[in-house]
Amino acid sequence: MGIRAPPLPPEVLVTTDPVPPPNFDSKPSPARMYDYFLGGKDNFEIDREAADKVKEAVGEMMCHGIVWENRRFLQRAVRYLAENGIDQFIDLGTGLPTVGNVHEVAQRIVPRARVVYVDNDPIVLAHGRALLATNSTTTVITADVRDPDAILGHPDLRALIDFSRPVAILAIALFHFVRDTEDPSAILRAFRDRLRPGSHLALSHLTTDGPAASEVAQVVDAYKGATSPIVFRPRARIEALFDGFDLVEPGLTRPWKWHPEFGPKGPETEWLYAGVGALSDGLPAAGGS
């Protein structure tokens, strides 16, 4: 299926790298690569080199299509959840700040919505804290999703999130950076076990069901040297990550097919699956404004 992409912001031409932080480990970071894909400037040469390998593998337009399709799904899912009464969000693996962040979408609908961004890249913390300096209901913490107890017990998260009320867990383009040996299902179960009925999980994930195997192999190779290698999974294994959640309509689907009435649907590709699941007593299966 062809891509019908919305106009993209012009890429920022970076002539010199920003000064790396003291603990910069000279490996490409998925968060900074994603920033580069979106046209951002908060990335280093090593990130751009790895990202360019992905562009070579799938084509530059397709690469833009994948990241913007995913980004539009995030924004529509947050709007859907906020309009249906969710006012607490934990965004796992948030990446670097860009236009249409979770707190911007949610707080347009629920001004006092609480948002906690989580990422293991310290650069995300630095940029996020600067961006959110005057926002008392949104914060950023540095933590790794592979250690859910550290996230759930973090004092900054506990100061904002009330687990006696529904919470949305956002895992957007995240778990394809968690290997099978790191047990992504157990990680999600740790979060699920802290949630009350009415809470939700929004998740998107790269899949082997659609793209050519040769292209998948090239993308996997491009991420081999990154801080987190990439793992494509078939649809059935992605759906299994929603264990304990009931998928709301239209179920697990291509991101651009998920409730387009809630905003721009983005390009149309076959590289991702996405969905939103609810614990019992959650939102109705069919959404709408």
In short:
The protein is an alpha/beta fold and 289 residues long. The chain has helices spanning 30-37, 45-58, 60-83, 102-109, 122-131, 148-152, 155-160, 184-192, 213-222, 235-240, and strands at 88-92, 114-119, 138-142, 168-172, 200-206, 246-247, 272-278. Helices cover 35% and strands 13% of the residues.
Describe it for me?
The protein is α/β, with parallel strands linked by helices and 289 residues long. 35% of the residues lie in helices and 13% in strands. It contains 10 helices and 7 strands. Strands 3-2-1-4-5-7-6 form a 7-stranded mixed beta sheet. Helix 4 links the parallel strand 1 and strand 2. The longest helix is centred in the first third of the chain and has 24 residues. It is globular and about 45 Å long.
What separation lies between the terminal Cα atoms?
A: 28 Å
- The percentage helix is 25-40%
Cα-based radius of gyration, to the nearest Å: 18 Å
- Structural class, judged by helices and strands? alpha/beta
Strand content: 5-15%
Largest sheet, strands/sense/barrel: 7 strands, mixed
What is the spatial order of strands in the main beta sheet? 3-2-1-4-5-7-6
Large-scale geometry: globular
> In DSSP terms, counting alpha (H) and pi (I) runs of 4 or more, how many helices?
10
Q: What is the strand tally? A: 7
Average pLDDT, all residues: 85
What's the helix-strand series? HHHEHEHEHHEHEHHEE
